[in-house]
Design goal:
Radius of gyration: 27 Å
Helix content: 25-40%
Order of helices and strands: EEHHHEHEHEHEH
CATH topology of the largest domain: Ribosomal Protein L4, Chain: A
Number of strands: 6
Oligomer: single chain
Distance between the termini: 13 Å
Shape: elongated
Number of helices: 7
CATH class of the largest domain: Alpha Beta
CATH superfamily of the largest domain: Ribosomal protein L4/L1
């Protein structure tokens, strides 16, 4: 089992925590991690792009000139793709880009990226994050104390003061234990997690 240091919001080490190998010590599966990221990005696509084919463009019902004897190339419609105002060849139509990963695959992908962050020493455990007011300066001071600039901060419960304090910091995102995902964990250099959140993650994903 991996042991990590536990810090307070002043950046001082206040103890250690033993992480479960069932979540933070699995064999990293790069293929599943890649598939999880592709799936998440694909599922976000609206798929509403649309262009008209030659069958959908208005006009062009009459043959522009006779087949032979004009010196022009033969043409059947002024709405063919080579004409200005014509339809688009293989025009995009609305479609659903999403695809589904199995539950076991999603869980293993998440555990893989968490394991990788622990191995890279990019997983910081904080005893608790509590503010008595909404103050961006206090949240930034905590990041400075922990020597972190770009981070995903995982909370066990939705604390309005903490979430709103982090909202105006561009390189920081807050998340709850039930909303963490592979893409966000990879996107941010460091993952900051409260002790309570670690316990919940281990309970859910072990």
């Amino acid at each position: 089992m991996a042991n990590v240091s536990v810090y307070n919001i002043e950046g001082k080490e206040v103890g250690t925590l033993e992480l479960s190998d069932a979540v933070f010590g699995v064999e990293v599966n790069d293929h599943l991690v890649h598939m999880a990221v592709v799936s998440q990005l694909a599922n976000k696509r609206q798929g509403t792009q649309k262009a008209k084919t030659r069958a959908e463009v208005r006009g062009g019902g009459r043959k522009p000139w006779k087949q032979k004897g004009t010196g022009h190339a033969r043409q059947g419609s002024t709405r063919s793709p080579q004409w200005t105002g014509g339809g688009v060849v293989f025009a995009p139509t609305p479609r659903d880009y999403s695809f589904k990963l199995n539950k076991k695959e999603r869980r293993l992908a998440l555990k893989s990226v968490l394991t990788a962050k622990v191995a890279e020493n990019k997983f910081i455990v904080v005893d608790e994050i509590k503010f008595d007011e909404i103050k961006t300066k206090k949240f930034q001071a905590m990041l400075d104390n922990l020597k972190v600039s770009k981070a995903l901060v995982v909370l066990n419960e939705n604390d309005k003061n903490v979430v709103m304090s982090a909202k105006n910091i561009p390189a920081v995102q807050t998340a709850l234990t039930n909303t963490i995902n592979v893409y966000d964990i990879l996107k941010y250099n460091t993952v900051i997690v409260t002790k309570a959140a670690v316990a919940t993650i281990e309970e859910v994903y072990a």
